[in-house]
UniProtKB/TrEMBL annotation:
<keyword id="KW-0560">Oxidoreductase</keyword>
<dbReference type="Pfam" id="PF01593">
    <property type="entry name" value="Amino_oxidase"/>
</dbReference>
<keyword id="KW-0274">FAD</keyword>
<dbReference type="InterPro" id="IPR050281">
    <property type="entry name" value="Flavin_monoamine_oxidase"/>
</dbReference>
<comment type="similarity">
    <text>Belongs to the flavin monoamine oxidase family.</text>
</comment>
<dbReference type="GO" id="GO:0046592">
    <property type="term" value="F:polyamine oxidase activity"/>
</dbReference>
<protein>
    <submittedName>
        <fullName>Putative polyamine oxidase 5</fullName>
    </submittedName>
</protein>
<feature type="domain" description="Amine oxidase">
    <location>
        <begin position="15"/>
        <end position="310"/>
    </location>
</feature>
<feature type="compositionally biased region" description="Polar residues">
    <location>
        <begin position="303"/>
        <end position="326"/>
    </location>
</feature>
<keyword id="KW-0285">Flavoprotein</keyword>
<dbReference type="GO" id="GO:0005737">
    <property type="term" value="C:cytoplasm"/>
</dbReference>
<keyword id="KW-0963">Cytoplasm</keyword>
<dbReference type="InterPro" id="IPR002937">
    <property type="entry name" value="Amino_oxidase"/>
</dbReference>
<dbReference type="InterPro" id="IPR036188">
    <property type="entry name" value="FAD/NAD-bd_sf"/>
</dbReference>
<feature type="region of interest" description="Disordered">
    <location>
        <begin position="301"/>
        <end position="326"/>
    </location>
</feature>
Amino acid sequence: MVAKKPRIVIIGAGMAGLTAANKLHTATASTDMFELYVVEGGSRIGGRINTSDFGGDRIEMGATWIHGILDSPIHKIAQQTHSLHSDQPWECMDADSATPTTIAEGGFLLPPSIVHPITNLFNTLMDYAQAKRTLIPHKPTTATLSIGSFLRHGLDAYWDSLKEQEEVEGFGNWSRRLLEEAIFAMHENTQRTYTSAGDLSTLDYKAESEYRMFGGEEITIAKGYLSVIESLASVLPDGCIQLGRKVTRIEWQAENSGSGNGFCSSRPVKLHFCDGSDMCADHVIITVSLGVLKAAIRDDHSGSGSEFSPNPSQNQQSVEEQMGGSYSQNPLFHNSWSLLQWP
């Protein structure tokens, strides 16, 4: 009798799911050791990575940056696949300006003497939040501290620490205080794009220090982020990736509980799909986005239909405290873009 091979199912064909599948497939000495499947609810691979052409340029509709190139596995793949150079223009190919220009409403060009102190304050506060610095001055004492409240407390403390400042002139109705407030808000809005948060007050302060970036410069990928995804998927055998298979429920039973309730013999996990089909597995790796996972857990709590059976333990549900949100990227195109004059 031929022994049944273990079956591993990965949910999600984004970066995490395809990386897991790639590692499992390439690390084994023989493909006969286990069955491997990647099930994806959408019609394409990549998840939030979605490279597209727009106005003759290559742009990213989702993930865009390699956040630090030193020891980055993504940068390594991009190098190996020759994806860091392209004849076609690509998004942020010139990176960010080392000397940005800050302009207030009304077309007023702001001097460094106004911009730099607030910029330095914001960067210092974020260094504390990300544990790059340890002694936190004026930290508010609250058990539910958010990034938003921490930053605002820091700005208030900065203003309280200053003696009377000389008022600015020549900026219309703008006062020094209003300009400093607007500069600080500008950096807050930029930070929101980093964390996909509509409101920084929804970001947990403790979780911010858990995020780690690789060293070195931050760059975009000339041939598109999708080139990395395609490289990961290229080694997988035909039939391994199954598109259009949205998982609606995951059931698990202990190994010693028998094979009742419709479970496959000896396979403890059963996946239910939106088309009514199901699949049994020995091991399941869930790689859906944090937002999708949080929504599933909230549905469990609300009683609107559990996606997990049994429900995750309290420790596993700590995902509720983690940061994350959603935002949309909207590219703009103008036929005479190069002729536009920006004050």
